[in-house]
Structures are given as structure tokens and as C-alpha cells.
Specification:
paralog of FGE (formylglycine-generating enzyme), globular, alpha+beta, three-stranded antiparallel sheet, 2 domains, four-stranded mixed sheet, 9 helices
């Protein structure tokens, strides 16, 4: 008979559900292709899928079985193979990696031991265990690699192997205006209360912004095509110098995966070639492309603080909410998340997910580039390891916010921060623009 408090039981259930959902998604992404596809490198930008699979198990073993349970390494000889900092992605196919069957067995054995550990470990008493943090961290880590594997699926050549229903048409009335005014003043950025928030989201602190306007929806393919048709990729004045060098050096003239046949722009999406849908948020653009479009439009990218204020600040109460729509966990009515669909929903979708100011699709659909460098918040403390955030701080990486259709809700909230190099285009990235008052 258990004497455990209901809160502990609830935490265990939440952790078990998050871990199970992540593993089901991992299985779907890896079982969908042949062993040959699992071990192949589909792009030098990405690891072989089989590396991600074993890395997920190795990370789980390291933090839960070794750090929490104090057990010896199950496979000490493989630890260096799955250290993401020891071997760049382009080199990983040359390593003596576990084969598909062995990687699956290893990840399954780790998971079985982890569920035993979860059943008997108090979720309190240390920073790692309080609120089930370390279990939530591992669930988020696996879901982040699931998104990475979905990117690999998009880069993979060949017939389609993944399926999902199409997003519904936008429900309810369209947005009342193309942009929304966000008043100047202070707001609370970041969090000190979200139990599974990661170190770069912490601590909560007050930021001040001047008043600004921000797009009600992300920039669409149709709007982006207007930039292209106006010679956007041929006019250096719209581009940051490094961006102009990048597009000229690589012959870039459209978002990644687009090509033109006659007067029609087509795109390849998970093995399917289709006309580019004008109503969808533009996808697979670099920070440089987003910045150039914004300049062409007479606007700019929002800062990270502006993005979060538009997403979380409720001027009626002065509070910063967990999500644009409030504090409740996301549902399918709020946002396009969790690989429920394999594409963004049309701009203007999900009115139930709008912020207090009426800004839509701030969560899900596409990661949104901001103008900000990835930097620590005041009072930042690396936890539980420097390599998650701290080693990436600096002007080399730009911040993306909001998540994409490929992000699971466990790894997406109003405070969640993503970052990447400004040249990256294979990620599920789009943007919206802002302007000064």
C-alpha cells in the first residue's frame, strides 16, 4: 500500500506519459524506414537516424540510471560515440555505431530500467528530482531529437514514408488586422516557476520594451513570393553582408526545397512534390532571408523580448501567462504541435490560441526567427550541464521562438528558447515582422 502524496503520484504519471509519448514518436520515425536508411547519412548537416536513436538511450542512461540511481555504465565503450560534442555530425557515419537492432535493444533496456526507477524514486529532495525535473528533461531531450529526425526525413531522398492528416481550414473569423500594437512598458520575461523549464529560460526577470507593432500571423508563402518577384534575392541592399555572401556563394534564390517550373513554384515536402501553398507560413528560411524580407517590407524582425511580450503579457492583468492563450496546456484547438500534421496550418488558424492582444500562431506551425543573439538572462545558472545552453551563448547564434508543427508540447511553451546559426534553413523555421511605433 502506498503512502505517497497525490502530487507525487501525479508527477510520476506525467513523467511516464511524457517518456512514453516520446518513445512512441521515436519508434514511428525509425520504424518507417529500412535499416539502410537508418544507417545512411542523408545530409552532412544531420546525423544518421541510428545515431540519434542510440544517443537518446545513452543520454537517458547517463542522467537517470547513472546520475540519479548511481549505477555503473551499461556500455562504457559507446559513451564517446554518442557524445554530441566529441564528434561533429558529418563524422558520425564513420564511427563504429550500434546497428539498428542493437540500438533499439539498448534504448529499450535503458527505458525498462528507467520506468523501474521512476516507480520508486521520490521526486523531491534535490534540484534534479524536484518536480520530476530530470525525467522531464529527458522527455524533452528525446522529443528534440525526434524533431531533428523529422528534419532528416525531410532531407531524405526517395518515396514518402510518413503520413499525417492535413490541418483543418482556419476556424472562426479571420484576424481583425494585419498587425497588433503592443504598448510599451515592463513585463515579466522568462520563468522561475515552470517545473520543467530548461536553464536558459530562467530566471524570471523584468524587461522593458518600447511600444511596437507586430504581425498578427507569420509571414506567408504568398507574401514571401512577392519579395522574390520583386528581385529580393538579387538586391544587396536588403541583405546583411554575411547573408548576401551566403546566398551569392551558394546560388540561393528561394527557400530550401523550393524549385520553379514555368511560372509555378513547387516544393518537396517529406517526399511529395506539390505547389507552394500561398496561405501557409513560409518555411525553411534562414535568419538572413527573414531579415532581408523584413527590410524589403520596411519592417524588421522582432527582438526576443518583443516576441515574448506579444506572446505572454496580458495587459489587463499585468501577468505573463504560460502560453499566449493563458496557463492551460495546449490542445489541438490552440496550436499545431506534436507532428500531428506534417505542415504548418494556414495563417490565421487557431483563434483559440491567440494571445491577449489577438496575435495568432505564436506557438506551433513554424519556429520564428528573432533579431536577438542567444544570450543568458540576468542571474542565469547552468543546470544541470554547461553544454545544454552556456557553450552556445554569443552573437554566433540567433534566437528562434514559438516552436513548429514538429515540436511536442512537452518541449514548447511561452518561455522556451531555441537557437541556431543564421545560415540554417533545414530547420522548420519561419518568421513574423515588427516595426517601431
Amino acid at each position: 500500500m502506498t503512502t505517497e502524496t497525490p502530487s507525487q503520484e501525479g508527477l510520476r504519471e506525467r513523467a511516464a506519459a511524457a517518456l512514453s509519448a516520446a518513445r512512441a514518436r521515436t519508434a514511428g520515425l525509425t520504424d518507417a524506414v529500412s535499416d539502410q536508411d537508418l544507417t545512411a547519412q542523408h545530409s552532412p548537416l544531420m546525423s544518421p537516424l541510428v545515431w540519434d536513436l542510440a544517443h537518446i538511450g545513452n543520454m537517458e542512461e547517463l542522467w537517470l540510471l547513472r546520475n540519479v540511481a548511481g549505477r555503473e555504465s551499461m556500455r562504457p565503450e559507446i559513451d564517446p560515440l554518442y557524445d554530441a560534442f566529441e564528434h561533429p555530425r558529418a563524422e558520425r557515419p564513420k564511427l563504429p555505431l550500434l546497428g539498428p537492432a542493437e540500438a533499439r535493444r539498448y534504448a529499450a533496456e535503458v527505458r525498462g530500467r528507467v520506468f523501474d526507477l521512476l516507480e520508486r524514486t521520490p521526486l523531491e529532495g534535490t534540484a534534479l528530482l524536484d518536480g520530476g525535473y530530470v525525467f522531464g528533461m529527458i522527455a524533452q531531450h528525446e522529443q528534440q531529437h525526434d524533431e531533428t529526425m523529422l528534419i532528416t526525413h525531410q532531407l531524405r531522398a526517395g518515396a514518402p514514408v510518413l503520413t499525417a492528416p492535413e490541418p483543418d481550414p482556419p476556424q472562426g473569423p479571420p484576424p481583425a488586422a494585419a498587425e497588433v500594437l503592443v504598448a510599451g512598458g515592463p513585463f515579466t520575461m522568462g520563468t522561475s516557476a515552470e517545473p520543467w523549464s530548461l536553464d536558459n529560460e530562467r530566471p524570471a526577470h523584468v524587461r522593458e520594451t518600447a511600444a511596437f507593432w507586430i504581425d498578427t500571423t507569420p509571414v506567408t508563402n504568398a507574401a514571401y513570393q512577392a519579395f522574390m518577384a520583386d528581385g529580393g534575392y538579387r538586391e544587396p541592399r536588403w541583405w546583411a553582408p554575411a547573408g548576401w555572401e551566403q546566398i551569392r556563394g551558394h546560388g540561393i534564390e528561394a527557400p530550401l526545397f523550393w524549385h520553379r517550373e514555368g511560372d509555378v513554384w513547387l516544393r518537396r515536402r517529406f517526399g511529395v512534390t506539390e505547389p507552394v501553398p500561398g496561405e501557409e507560413p513560409v518555411l525553411h528560411v534562414s535568419w538572413y532571408e527573414a531579415d532581408a524580407y523584413a527590410r524589403w517590407a520596411g519592417r524588421r524582425l522582432p527582438t526576443e523580448a518583443e516576441w515574448e511580450k506579444a506572446a505572454r503579457h496580458d495587459p489587463a492583468t499585468g501577468r505573463s501567462t504560460r502560453y499566449p492563450w493563458g496557463d492551460a496546456d495546449p490542445t489541438p484547438a490552440h496550436a499545431n504541435l506534436g507532428q500531428r500534421h506534417l505542415r504548418p496550418a494556414p495563417a490565421g488558424s487557431y483563434p483559440a490560441g491567440a494571445s491577449a492582444l489577438g496575435v495568432r500562431q505564436l506557438i506551433g506551425d513554424v519556429w520564428e526567427w528573432t533579431s536577438s543573439d542567444f544570450l543568458p538572462y540576468p542571474g542565469f545558472r547552468a543546470f544541470p550541464y554547461r553544454e545544454y545552453s552556456e557553450v552556445f551563448f554569443g552573437p554566433e547564434h540567433k534566437v528562434l521562438r514559438g516552436g513548429s508543427f514538429a515540436v511536442d508540447p512537452v518541449a514548447c511553451r511561452g518561455t522556451f528558447r531555441n537557437w541556431d546559426l543564421p545560415v540554417r534553413r533545414q530547420i522548420f523555421s519561419g518568421f513574423r515582422t515588427a516595426r517601431d511605433v
